[in-house]
């Protein structure tokens, strides 16, 4: 918000030039996309977060090729070695190169986070939209399940079920994490669907005989796409933290797989005397979280300028320079998102 | 209002019963208490293991419904069953609730007040240095799992201690002070409490301040605040009496839920700093294949959610006149 581009460099997105107005509707889609990208790019923190996340991904998948050590290889000459040219981040008690190990854990943590984010948002969108669209008993039963899942201590349940995925694939763990993290978003989707389902475009589709699932997936859910995108990003961050916490206690990712949680857990006994064993993997974990919350915040501001977090309501001095911008830009931004966001706020 | 609360209570009660039963079934089917005894050296005879398991109502060969019947019968009569060590779960629970309360009470009070104050102040000074700093700091804190904060504090304290034992990193008190409440014992307890309490406070302040900041920002632009200023109220008074009071309302349910659920949610803090509270039981009971304790924790958490739900309904009604009128 702080970065103010001089008005000249910013082509006013607002009043659509007549030439473009005659174009096909596809034009407006790209222009909304471009608008979002431009708003996102204006946010320095968000860009920094994106840069950080890309860097983490590159490191996780490219890093292992840079070092000669493998995460399963033991260097019997160096136990608990401090960071050096040979072992960049030092070695663990077993002589494993910490850099290789952490990068391996980073891979798994990132993948799990992404999968859980997508799964839980998908679940939330589907359940919430179906509950609200059909109403009545469907709604009551589905919301009761939401309440029940909220009452059940998710950490306890996943931990109790952990013997199930011990020895089998970590994907079960991902599904469980997803299954316990969608409920609150599901409620939000439900209340948004309630307002959307009385709108003309939904009614029109209904009277044309479009089936309910098609209406939900083609008309209702795309209308709240921005909320769902933001939620996915937030869920990714939450999943990374949840995954590492469960893995830290041995209830999550199981050997021979490693995640950042297990890397930190395995070295936690030596953490006070050999702090780098803690700080490198924990640092990576924190960087994931920070980058994702920066991105999420930037996305929220870019996709949904009317959301409470993005608003600058109180007239402050800081806001003054904004009036230097073409005033037409402001109403245009609102109308660009009004179609989808009217129900959100 | 009364009828509304009663209906909510009935709904919550059904949920608690179903959630607790489901937890028992999951634990009973998934955990294997027999393994806990089979690994012993010298090995125990098969029959005596079975006998012990039967006595504790944990024998995996008994049909789950029969076990559940026994357990539910006990719970209704106020008996949560035996732990895998043969103690009463009730006694264990009583002790642990005490430990958790001692840890959480102070941390929660400081954490919630601090969070609300920091968030509201940050909103008033939006985009100034203070606001930027607290926002960035809370981003970092919220990006960290609790155990990372805990272990980092531990490492920091060890460095600060520099060989002395001023800040203790493990346990609730030193063994020689067990059961004592004189000055030395209290000092000792305070030394132990510093780090875990700090962990919880940092976490809560970061979380609550984010919410408080955004609700406060919403209120700051409102007409009634301008009216309050226009009729001649001083800025501070208008902000606190008209602004903060309104802005705190949406945060209340969040505060209540988090505070109440912290009883089992302080798992990571208790584990990291070796406090034998409720949160620790959650992790340890699963490791010990202790079906009855797991089920008891599940029940306890469900009851906490019920209490939190009711409490936030009542508090909301008490604080917001609009709800009472309806």
UniProtKB/TrEMBL annotation, chain B:
Annotated compartments: Cell membrane
Domain of life: Bacteria
Bilayer-spanning residue ranges: 12-31, 103-124, 136-157, 190-208, 244-268, 294-319
Keyword Zinc-finger: no
Domain ABC transmembrane type-1: 97-312
Keywords: Cell membrane, Membrane, Transmembrane, Transmembrane helix, Transport
Coiled-coil segments: none
GO cellular component: plasma membrane
Recorded topology in the membrane: Multi-pass membrane protein
Location (main, coarse): membrane
GO biological process: transmembrane transport
Family to which the UniProt record says this protein belongs: Belongs to the binding-protein-dependent transport system permease family.
Name this protein carries in UniProt: Peptide ABC transporter permease
Species for this entry: Streptomyces natalensis ATCC 27448
